[in-house]
Amino acid sequence: MKKIIVSFFITAVVFFTLVFSLSFMSHSNAEDFQVAMVTDFSDVNDASFNQACYEGGMEWAKENNVKFNYFKPSDASLAERVKSINLAIDRGYKTILCPGYAHGEALAEVAPKHPDVKFIGLDISPGDFPSGFTLTENIAVFNYHEEIAGYIAGYGIVKEGFRRLGFLGGIPGSAVIRFGYGYVQGIDAAAKELQADVDVQYVYGGQFFGDSEIYKYIDNWYKVNKTEVVFSCGGSIYTSVALSAKENNGYMIGVDTDQAPIIDRDYQEGICLTSAMKGIKQTVIAKLGELYHERRWQSGITYLGLVSSENPELNYVQLPMDTWRMKHFTIEDYKTLIQDFLDGTKDVSTETEQPPVVSEYTHVSYRGSIK
Amino acid sequence: MNKIKSFFSSFFKKDETKTVVTSLWCALLGLVLGFVILLCINTKEAADGMATILGNFFVFQNADDRWNYFGQTLAKTAPLIAMSVSVLVCYKAGLFNLGASGQYSIAVLVITFMGVAANWPWWLVMIGAMVAGALWSMISGVLKAFFNVNEVISGIMLNWIALYLVNGILTANSAIWDSSHSEAYKITDGSNALIPSVGLDRLFAGNSIVGLGMILILVVTIVIFVLFKKTTIGYELKATGFNPDAADYAGMNKVKNILVATAISGALAGLAASLQVQNGFTSWRLSSTIPSIGFQGISAAFLGGLHPIGVLFSSYFIEHISEGGSMITDLGFAPEVAGIITSAIIYLAGFVAFLKEMIRKSEVKDELRRLSRDKAVKK
Amino acid sequence: MDDVYAIEMLSITKRFGSLLANDHIDLRLKKGHILAVCGENGAGKSTLMSILFGLYEPDSGIIKKDGAEVKITNPNDATKLHIGMVHQHFKLVDTFTVLQNIILGEETIKEYRGHLNVFKRCFNWLNKHLFKIIDYQRARAEVQQIIDQYDLRVDLDKKVKDLSVEMQQKVEIIKMLYRKNDILIFDEPTAVLAEQEIQGFLQILRNLKKEGKSILFITHKLNEIFEVCDEITIIRKGKSIDTLAVKDTNKEEVSAMMVGRKLDMNQTKPSPVTGNEILRVEHLTLVDPNSKKRIVNDVCFNVRAGEIVTLAGIDGNGQQEVVYGIAGMKKSQSGSVFLHQEDISSYSVRKRIQAGLSHIPEDRQKYGLVLDYSIYENAVLDRYYEKSFSKCLFLNQKSIREYGDELTEKYDVRSSGDGSTVVRSMSGGNQQKIIVGREIERGVDLLLAVQPTRGIDVGAIETIHNLLLEQRKAGKAILLVSLELDQVLALSDRILVMYEGEIVGEFTPDSVDKETLGLYMTGAKKDKVNAIKENGHE
What is the number of CB-based contacts under 8 A between chain A and chain B? Predict the structure, then answer.
């Protein structure tokens, strides 16, 4: 017994000395410009906006030879999110990317205490900040006209010739709702132009990941309701949609980033017709660039949308042109549609309280939430 | 001098000493294993990563942050302690509470209704949570006592039933369900249901989740300790756990003991929920997986040598390294790595019994060697 | 033929700690004969058989098969020598079919028997060493042949768990035959069988003998021995007493040899002063929930103050169950138990204890003690809740300690430390003293003592005997269950012999000898007995 106790202490002392002395030696000095990112709920490989944000940061950081790292809170709670942001600040990061609505409350708690640190928020609507909180100078939030992205996707898919459509949102936050209502408006616009009857099923999954329950629900749409295309609008909830689309020879629309490659790889080539993209990656690259090279800082909440019809890839909301798969709705049609928006001949409502009013051609069944 | 010597020799022979030493060894082995894993993944940053895991709040340069997150680790330890004591109570009575997560879930449901919707005083909500946990746990108890259904199986099934029940009921009530964030509303500052911080938050740089709960769980743990050490209930439960046949022979009521053990255990799981939710730290989030705290409780209970006081330390240790583990992503380790490390450490806790057996064997060997040596000398 | 021995075990000695289980035992089994090995419980039969089957290694002595010395260090060696054994508890896989169970471990591997020579070699080699595809067809044919040869009807496709005990035994026998064993050991095979089934089993033994198998048959039951066996080897207290040819002996002689002629203990005890009836058991019947067999069948007796009534019999004839029925640990099917004229049949264990019943259980480690508890804690195992040891839910540690110390002192319980020593670390005798002391100190009028001296050393046995006699003198009623006839004769005032769950004989120790008891215990003789004795009727 004595031997065991003594050997324990020796091992412990050796181990701790080793670890701490090594770690002490490896400590480097903080550089003046480093960028950190704190994830929201999922990880940086969620095939959605965390990943887009991470890739943007990574790409820019490599190009400019700047240190970039990410933090993931140990659980979904506010306290842990705040801890992760504080840790990033403590480690000397001066610019912090905060994607996702969950950061609203966390920023309200941290940002006022650290005026020297810049926070770039993505996709945080005004309602996500605690009521009565006024954004401090060091917070810049970039939101997107998701309704336009949704509109374009919906419009295109009807023009392509599909008549039985579905929408599966994630957690019904304002971004998801804008996507959805924009989608419905786009569908309605195209239906009116074609004078064709369109059926739309509309539901929220209540979460940003797929599971068997959601899969069964969507599978039912494809099988019983003869739905042809489902817009999967909520992070990795696409897994449930892609699976049932594959099994029922249906199609789907991705969200946030171009989800076609990953779905081609994991499920089946060609299932994902298009994706209603937000230019998160571009935003990160652009805004970090502005801050680093031009010392330009635009605090407050900014909504990013369409910029150009000539080169749609400059837009902050867009469809992917590399993997364009629609035949009747061509890239030319797409550009025309953008031009219409820029001209003001087409418009879309940003309303999120009430569902959009639609014509008699469009029949929307709002199904509430699966969970 | 002799007195000291005899004190030490009896100290080394004591069973408690053995338990403590084996638990410490397990923790250390886990850490070494974790370090080896880190070395395999990223040699350059491994030491730094390990230091971060071990350091947790210490790595903050800012003193305020350090206190703040020390407090947070402590506050998050409280529910884990409650959970592991819950597991321990059942274990002592010869039952295995794998259903602690389910009891926790049901308690969260009750807290959400009583605390968020009805805004009842915190102690009443806490009692409600404990009663709910106890009742849910007693389903397993009744099944075991009257129909001899294995409590492990019924516990696991009740975990899932509880999960979907809570998901279903909460999402259906818009008064308490924040559908745009897909979680129940939290208990906020100023709510009656918030466990008071009694000034402890000031001690920890204003961390608002620190509060009376931490003291409460210490008291409860001591109560459980006393229950097993000093009361007839504890005496009966332990006898049943050690030797159910003898308990039967001595006329102890098996049914009663099973129900008592499951009720206490469930109440503690309910308390864990209360300590987790009623400080405004978190609320029920829509989930398709069982809350992991019930399983962490099992690890903590075993690492703590199945002793109420040991559990205090093991729970803190587990929480400490889990927290530290979440802080190494910026060193080039994926968050999954942190998970692997912490689970490696936690699961080595399961080796406590194994190690103890090894120590016993080596002792027997020593004894034999000594005996044969003595014989040789005599000859 | 008569002089060829299939198996000879010569001067086998085996020691377990201080216990000499086999003391220079000789055993010779003639080829093609059935040899009965009989003796009391704990006489060393099972140890001897385990040595033959390779489960234990003897400390000294040699084993010869067909005249040549062999070494058997594990069951595989025994199997190679074609020695097979049917254990008391069958070694079958419940969820496998009969056929699968029979060929288990000796699977017939598929063989290609075609003409493609190269393929044949490759396939057969691979299959033998790698794939091990089983040739069920061939296996079935082989098994079927055995079944026909020995007339052992069993449905090969049924799962073992769906078979009756009798059928399972047949499966075990076929298993042995399938392995081409020629020496078959049966360890108390009839203990699990009903009367008619026993006849069937004996017929199987005869068939086996006819086919030239040599059989070792372990049993207590003399009737069976005299029906099928050729020789008997009698073992008592680890020694082989004698080997007799069945045709030259009779039951009386054998049972006398089994139990020993000489009385080892000469304790004089005063004649009983019987008082009021303390315990009365009427028509008690207990049914085993698994086999549905009546383990206690319509038992009636009473115990009066100041007398020791003994339930004698060979282990497993229902004596323990009678006590469980009285103590409430097993539910009785019918019948009633009266304590002080009060019907306690519907009481819980606790209530019966409170009504004035103390109980020294058969298995001290299983029932009598919580081994991980200290002496103190065990000293109050069935009375911790009493006022003197607890105060509103809290144990009164001080009074428990005082009481524990008193008990240790009075009953000379020795341990390595004080009363906080964990009982697990103590010797069996000292453990037993705790229980005996605890139960006697309760001071109630009825003491149930089941094998109170099992597995403890001579000194402790004497202490416990004296304690029981003291209690008798103090006017307590004592119900003793004992397997040792010496003890039975030395202590009892009345002896009730149990056989197959029934009381088959009632005696007083001075009016009976061991031979007679042996006849009753082995079922060779039976009376119809109602053992309720009223005072003054003697």
Answer: 130
